[in-house]
Structure formats: C-alpha cells, structure tokens
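Internal tracking record. Fields below are filled automatically when a chain is submitted to the structure queue. Please do not edit lines marked as system-generated. If the sequence contains nonstandard residues, flag them in the REMARKS field before resubmitting.
Queue: standard
Priority: normal
Entity type: single polypeptide chain
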Amino acid sequence: MIIWLASYPKSGNTWIRAFVSSLLFKKDNVNSLDNMKQIHAYPLKKDFYNLLKDFNNLNTISECWEKSQNILNLDKKIKFLKTHHILCGINKNFFTNYKNSLGVIYIVRDPRNVITSLMNHYSIENYDQALKFILDKDRFSGKFGEKNSFTRETEFPTYISNWNNHYNSWKSFKKNYLLIKYEDLVKNPEANFKEIANYLGKLLKIQIDNEDINYAITKSSFINLKKSEEIYGFDEAPPDEITKKKKKFFNLGPDNQWQKYLSKDIQNKIENSFKNEMKELNYL
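SYSTEM-GENERATED OUTPUT FOLLOWS
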C-alpha cells in the first residue's frame, strides 16, 4: 500500500520527505539527503518500463497507472511515494485508488510564495511567465519522449495542472488524508512534525517517541539540507538553462516571503485567481 507525499511543485514536499525518511529510515549519515533515496518520485520511467511502448501519449500512460501501482504493491508492504501529479482521471483511468493507496500527506503552500520558487527551479525568465505557469490548467512537468530517450530514473510526464486544481483534486482523497501547510511547519515545526509523526504511527501501527521526532526534525531542517547540498550536491537539483550547471535546490526556503518579491500587480492576480482556496486556507 502506498502513502503519498503529494504537493504542487515547490511547496515543501522535499522537506516532508526528508523528515519522514529521517524518522522511519533513520541512519546516522552525515549527509542529510541520503535517507531520502528511500522515497522515490512517481511517476518514473522504471515504474512503467515493461508496461508502455509509447511515452508520448497521456492516454496510454493513464491506462498503466493502476497496473504500475499494482506491481509496486506486490510485496504487500507499506511504501512512500512522492508526487506532484494531480489526482485526476483520464478516460476512466484514475491516478490512484483506495485499493493501492493507504493515505496521503498533502503539503500546501501560499501560491504567492510558490511562484518565486518556481522561477528559480524551472529557470523562468520573469514573474509574468511564472504567473502563466501557476495558472495553467494544462501544465506538465517532466517531458514526453521516445521510450529509449529516458533513463530508468527519468521523471516522465507529470500532469500538475494549476495551483488550485491541484489542491482541490487531492482534497477529494478521503482515505487517511492529512493536510499540512508549509507555513505552519515554518512557524511551529515541533507541533506540526509531531502531527505528521502521530499520523504515521497510527497508519503504520508503530510507536514513535519524541526523541525520534526531534532527531528527524534536526536532520531535515532547511539549514541541514542546504549544508548537505553544498557539501555533497543533490541529484534532484535542476540544471540552469543557460550554464547547464546544477542550481541550488535549497534556495530561499523560509526566507522566501512574497512581500519582498512580488509586485502589487502579480500579487493581485494570484489572489483574484485563487481567492476561494486562499480564503479556505486562511492565506487571505
């Protein structure tokens, strides 16, 4: 059974992934990023390798979502998968189902802060272009391509849609749904990471003590993750579109505050576009 760590891109998914990895797969690694390899992204080519010949067609990809997850679950063990995919259905093929999924931790972040992180990660030229990204209901990350153009670890087409569609889609997943706000993690990490630990303890039927929680909070802190990336690098860091060198994955983190970076015009457009969801989440 799968426990999903789901979010719109640049919303704190990697932070939660680092915490869960340090909590459940604790190893005394100097490199705080090492444990995260226990939780891989989905979809990856390796999950579809013997199921698909055409990696250019979302319809055929969608036909294999359930098949690929059935295979992942053959060992009957609980596993964690990170995803930025919207929870959608295409031609009655659903991204996941309750048969394959035990629950989801959904991480949401104020879209006024998401937009600056998107600019850095995807090498977006300016805020107007970043605004188009976050508003685009047809947005994908990853890429389409021929089967042989991918390595087995390549993240191939991931349908993310726009910020509010993404949030609303996963909100409909009623089985063991836990909503975590990025801003709450920043303001009160102890209380909110403890909430995640309690959630996992119940699902996994294990006892998690405060010492384990505090260890995982320390190992997964932004400062530790940023330091590990500086020393050891991070495979998931995006390439710079111009220099082709890897950029810093852990860039601004909690220092990314929209009040410092957004023009009034961009701020108003985001707030008007996502008004209902932002009010629901107390961002407005």
